[in-house]
Amino acid sequence: MSFRYFLLILFAAGGFAGLAFAGAMGGIISLGGIPERKQTQSSYYLTSEQVHDILQDDPSILFIDVRTYEEVEASGHPHPVDAIVPYQVQSEIWDSDLQEFTLVENAAFVTKIRALLNEAGRSQYDMIIITCGSGVRSAAAARMLEDSGFNNVWHIPDGYDGDDKPGLNIQNAWKNKGLPWSGDVSAVFF
What residues does each domain of the chain span? Predict the structure, then answer.
């Protein structure tokens, strides 16, 4: 186990409220730097580079992309993501303004995460890392898991693609940092 990974586990066990871990891997991310919609109860945040490093040290950590199949198919996914488990699924409710069907919470999301952990011989107490496109859904998914008793859920506030809205961070996202990614969704969609 690397020193950085050890510090991550030590930090998680200590639960320093109000700060996100980055310590030995690049500084502390304060809550003031993360928009409220991307925050979680636990305040466990990682940058894309930190996730990449952690997974290099321990590839058995469950790494989940919570975007829809269509999004992942269009832009790829972080490599090595373990599974694509959409946090939201398409409903039958038509949004005439957007000219599309609305997305609703995936009722099977928590059950699927539990199944993935069981397959890996892990439990809801083991580390899980979640990402999405911009960090909004991964935060919502992390909150849902925390509300369901998971206590070691981390997410990437800048996500895979990053924000494209003016004034929001577009530099730290997985793809923007040039980290490994794949366009093959067949092996990881769950």
Answer: 3-182
Give the CATH superfamily of 3-182.
Answer: Rhodanese-like domain (3.40.250.10)
HSE at residue 86, side-chain half, CA atoms within 13 A, is 17
* 10-residue averages of pLDDT along the chain (190 residues): 46 41 41 83 94 95 94 90 93 88 93 96 96 94 97 93 64 83 77
- Report residue 76 as tokens: 């790829």
Q: What global pTM score does this model have?
A: 0.80
E strands, 66-161, are 77-78, 83-84, 88-95, 100-105, 128-131, 153-155
Which residue spans within the chain are E strands per DSSP? 19-20, 29-30, 62-65, 77-78, 83-84, 88-95, 100-105, 128-131, 153-155, 181-182
